[in-house]
Amino acid sequence: MAPTPSPAWVYPTLSLRIPDLAHPGVHTFLQLLDPHTALTLAVEATLTHLYDSSANAPVVGSVVLVLRSMDGVAHTTGSETHKEIHLSVDYIVKKGGPAEAVRHEIMGVLTHEMVHCFQYNARGTCPGGLVEGIADFVRLHADLAPPHWSPDSVPDKWDAGYEHTAYFLDWLENRYGQGTVQELNGLMKDREWDEQIFKELTGRKLGKLWKIYVGNRDSAV
Ligand SMILES: [Zn+2]
């Protein structure tokens, strides 16, 4: 059964495009997930973690999920108001494994891509690693982290991206309070990137924050 969308959020029109219904990855997707439910849950997780109200979120008119054969896992394209999430059905086949694990992975990927549909990016100047880190922070907080992620593998820079930056953001959220990452996203709404944003958020410079984070990880083992 399709979920009832939460009235707190303005939902985009959700649709699905499948160029080749005969692909086995398409079959798996449709066996495991109801597309409307899956996309609605991804929108809800994204908006809940990035915004405190729909008034602060960008208005995205439509999101199209394209299930097609392609290299890689997934990506998001489109204009500011009309987005397309392309998900590789070859990847779904390659992934394999128990149904629940595949469903969990697909929901994780969809949620990550949905964040790209709604997040602010300092007018396109936000470091790519932070864009990916925020997407995986939402994935982590939606309980959709893949089994191989670990906060113990610390990279050599804060904007290494994906789960590496996500765990740094998670640490900031724990240390400086719930909503810190939401504020970080909000600060990138209509201005260009400047790492001073971290100072505004926490009172500390980014370099210092990273040093404390790495130090904590080293001593936590
Ligand atoms: Zn991404």
TrEMBL record:
Pfam families: BSP. PANTHER family: PLANT BASIC SECRETORY PROTEIN (BSP) FAMILY PROTEIN, PTHR33321. This is Plant basic secretory protein.
